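Thread: DAGKc domain-containing protein, structure

OP (GT): Posting the sequence first so everyone is looking at the same thing. Length is 292 residues per the record. Can we get the structure tokens written out before standup tomorrow? I want them in the notebook alongside the other entries.
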Amino acid sequence: MKKAEPFSPVGLSGAMRAWLIVNPASGSVTETHSIDALAAETAIELVRTTIFPDEPLPRADDLATERIELLILFAGDGTINAAACALDGWGGRVLVLPGGTMNMLAKQLHGSADPKAIVARAAADPAPEAIPLPFVEAGPHRAFVAMIAGPPAAWAHAREAVRKGRLQAAWRAARIAWTRSFAGGVRLRGTPRDRRHRAVVAIPDPGGMEIAAIDVDGWIGAVRLGLEWLAGDWRTSPAVTIMTPDAASIEGGRAIHLLFDGESVKLPGPLRVSHGMTRLGFIRTIGSEDEQ
Ligand SMILES: Nc1ncnc2c1ncn2[C@@H]1O[C@H](COP(=O)(O)OP(=O)(O)OP(=O)(O)O)[C@@H](O)[C@H]1O
């Protein structure tokens, strides 16, 4: 078989020592984007590969020992979140490639380009721009895309069961999640909307964070919000109140259900939510003027 032509290495040249973290369970990591092909096509010197989560994430020390300059994350938002949290003390640059289902972080950094095009763009730039990413933080966890608190977070179990092909478990989890979605809620302290809400969504922003308090009653309200969400204008829904506090506190029974970039966690309340910026630099291949 003819070997793929390497991209002309200008910025991310063959001298660039890279460590790849890939999650084969992420929604769009496929054979066509195999690790070997990626390395061959980029002419980046792929020194090590971690298959997550079967293998543990490398530590900053491991990257330093191998003199790694570029960390390539080929996975979905959940995996990227895990690596970005674990390696925030490391001084190198990160290239995010869309390997997941939603790929919200990859879209922020590269628009809708595919992995091959992203590497080509990054390689063609003598000094690719690397930017810190904003995050929201609660307990030991961070979200770079969104943190969802409240009963709707229980839907993650149903999604995970579907992904694993466990349809009976998915059905059970969906029934529980549906019931919980209309019971309980979370209380938001330290904001103008200091009361119980169906769910609270915290979204990081370079200037701080946005907190959306969601108040839907029953399934008609939920369906309406769902349609508004699909149409892309959920933030303007009458069921949603947007605030920009510097910090807030969430309460909700003995344990609060949360999703951090799609990964499900339960934490005891009250839970302080704050925001910050990563120390890691993430390579961005689209300018703000480009189409998102
Ligand atoms: N920190 C983690 N520890 C263990 N497993 C994880 C972790 N993060 C993600 N996973 C698992 O890896 C699989 C793929 O998740 P990932 O978020 O990478 O891709 P995705 O869900 O397809 O994409 P996206 O999050 O962009 O929609 C899921 O089963 C997820 O639960």
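GT: Both are above now. Quick notes for whoever picks this up: The mean pLDDT is 81. The longest helix spans residues 167-181.
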